[in-house]
Predict the structure.
Amino acid sequence: MNKEITVMLDCLNEVLQLTKKLVSIPSIVNTSGEKDIATAIHHQLSSLPYFIANPNHLVMAPTADDEVERYNITAFVKGTKRLSDKTVILMGHMDTVGIDDFAQFKDLACRPAELSKAYSAEKLPANVEQHLNSGEWLFGRGVLDMKSGLASHLYLLQYYAEHPEALAGNLLLVAECDEEDSSHGILSALKILKRWKETYRFNYVAAINADFVSPRYEGDENRYIYKGSVGKLLPSFFITGQETHVGSCFEGFDPNFLAAELTREINYNPLLIDKAYGETPAPPVSLKQTDLKPSYTVQTALSSFVYYNFLIHSWSPKEVLEKLRHHAEIAFKRALDTFTERYLAYCQLSSETYRPVPWTVRVFTYEEFQELLVEQNGETYLKHMKEFTADLLADSTLDLRMYSARVVEEAWKFMQDKSPAMILFYSSLYSPRVEVTGKNEQEEQLIEALEKAIAKVQPHYPNPIVTRNFFPYISDMSFVAMSDDEAGSQAAILNNPAWGTKHYVNYQDIRDINVPVICIGPYGLDAHKKHERTETAYSCQIVPNLINEVVRDILK
């Protein structure tokens, strides 16, 4: 590396080689590969003279309360150009999604050169073939999401470890595991960030993620940088009906019928799109819809379970519950109206006597449901559920979503009025939304530094570099800043059946860090797909320069 930083770092080859090295280590989430890549990064950094002299500045730490053995790498360099408490966090994940989608090329998924050679003999989509033949794109699992971004961070940390005299303030790296599943990595790393904040008197002024960016639409030539991040919730419904023999179907009420009407109401509904600051996330869509019958019978199901992906820009978990309750009531009434209409038509056809439909719209949030059950059953209910959830934890076949459904299903047994109802709850990790809009001095400084960095680097790259407000994918950016107030986040806690048993997040840890975060990441296509690829010029040359310019400006 050159000692003096000029207008542009000449870093393409070094970042590209770092990327290939990281990609060569398979690090699929929830496998031993997460430990392997952390070990490799720790070994590389620990061999640098700076970390030999300052071993406490580099930590390889296991995740907390995790069923998988895996590790984070946290490291920092204290600059000597000007001593300061100002600290910029560079963050990026080491894990990837799986490789089964590579099919016959599965064994080559983490070997870019061999994979490209194999692809050259295949019939490929036109744009994939063009990129392959250009020699300007790197293919393989993790090249885009997000090992080229992590490589940029490592390059910069290593540069300043070798030349701390060129750094004012402090540069801190968090290379986290488990981003692709449950974010155990960043949630565990918060503890170290808090400890270092106290021990070294760090003032965290900005965080920069380097997760991937892609075109927003076909023909989009922009390269995006994101201020803040979309949030994600998984609103779920436990739906009960009235069971009956299928030969007497109108004597009962099929919960699958209710579930279908609910999905019809929620899926793709523009009224449930949280547009903010001129940007629009994708609408909600179902991710699972099933009844809970264990086996075939000629009786209608007792209950159904559905959950939906729900992206937010400005709404809190509390607001989402309120909106979904309203739409669930609409769906419930429509289902009852349709049922009544069809029952009347059946009675006319069969000459059977019509009896008024006895059910009414009933939608509860889980918090309300719990309060009602405690009121009706007292300590008997609480004691039973404590024992039940403890036993349920032993069932390793249940993911967090199904665990939550089983808890609600068991609780329903204590309900005195068992007429059809919907119970609305959250059954997974809440990834908080993050707004970086200039609402305080730190955000203003970060936005200004970003704008200056783009202006400085843009002349060196032909495509427009454009900023937007919300990173559109789920990322660990959600766990270093908090835009919700206490009431908003509390709704995600009180309405999660797994809270405190199979699931727990210390949101106070996030508030204690609460640093404005942006995403300057590699550009490419087909993340999580077999043709995953990154454009090397932007990803390995422009990205590290943009990050470096922001860091230097923030810390000056």
Summary: The first strand starts at residue 58 and ends at 62. Residues 12-230+432-480+515-555 form a domain with the Aminopeptidase fold (CATH 3.40.630.10). The chain has two domains: 12-230+432-480+515-555, 235-426. The CA atoms of residues 19 and 148 lie 5 Å apart.
